[in-house]
């Protein structure tokens, strides 16, 4: 009977359990703090995919340079028969917005026309950078490769509190004398 009727002091193990509980709570707090940005990103990404989208028009559009007869505003007029003509690689188009919004996508129509024969007659961008500025002046950079074909080309994003988007042309095809690099249209989409 001796090994089975052993008396144990009343407080033994209590300090160990308390210490383990404090360590577990502290570990959960640290993990929550470290994983919060990732968790928020995943949450917003799911909302982007499950929610609807709507096109949003910029309140202003400017360009660092434009070819004669092809102003920056032609890239956001809702038509693809006119275009913004950039005189050279490195030119940029900046769209600004009155109120911050969640930018979920950008669509670019490159070239002078959606018609294949006309499309090949003009210069068109093949690589560009999107510089997205948020209301806290943070800039998000995304490099976009554009196919050398007519039609819309979509880029998915997921950036909150956007106040401006700048498209900087980095490479182009079909360049030549008197052939500005043509961006037929650029559209911005927000989450609804």
In short:
By secondary structure, the protein is of the alpha+beta class.
Q: Give the % helix.
A: 10-25%
Mean residue pLDDT: 88
Rg: 27 Å
Classify the beta-strand content into a percent band.
35-45%
N-C termini distance: 74 Å
Taken in chain order, the helices and strands follow as: HEEEEHEEEE
According to DSSP, the number of beta strands is 8
Category by helix and strand content: alpha+beta
Number of continuous helical runs: 2
> What is the molecular shape?
elongated
The major beta sheet can be summarized as: 8 strands, antiparallel
Assembly state (oligomeric): single chain
**Uncertain stretches:** none
Describe the structure.
This protein is α+β, with helices and mostly antiparallel strands and 192 residues long. Helix content is 21%, strand content 42%. The chain is built from two helices and eight strands. It has helices at 14-50, 116-119, and strands at 53-56, 60-63, 84-86, 92-110, 124-134, 139-145, 152-173, 181-191. Strands 1, 2, 3, 4, 5, 6, 7 and 8 form an eight-stranded antiparallel beta sheet that branches. The longest helix has 37 residues, at 14-50. It is elongated and about 100 Å long.
């Amino acid at each position: 009977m001796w090994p089975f009727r052993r008396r144990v002091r009343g407080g033994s193990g209590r300090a160990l359990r308390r210490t383990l509980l404090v360590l577990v709570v502290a570990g959960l707090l640290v993990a929550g703090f470290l994983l919060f940005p990732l968790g928020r990103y995943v949450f917003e990404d799911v909302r982007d995919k499950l929610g609807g989208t709507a096109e949003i028009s910029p309140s202003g559009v400017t360009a660092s340079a434009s070819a004669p007869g092809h102003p920056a505003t032609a890239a956001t007029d809702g038509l693809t028969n006119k275009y913004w003509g950039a005189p050279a690689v490195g030119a940029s188009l900046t769209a600004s917005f009155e109120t911050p919004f969640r930018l979920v996508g950008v669509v670019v129509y490159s070239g002078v026309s959606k018609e294949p024969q006309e499309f090949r007659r003009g210069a068109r961008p093949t690589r560009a950078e999107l510089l997205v500025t948020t209301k806290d002046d943070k800039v998000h950079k995304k490099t976009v490769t554009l196919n050398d074909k007519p039609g819309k080309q979509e880029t998915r994003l997921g950036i909150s509190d956007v106040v401006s988007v700048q498209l900087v042309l980095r490479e182009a095809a079909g360049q030549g004398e008197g052939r500005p690099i043509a961006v037929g249209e650029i559209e911005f989409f927000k989450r609804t």
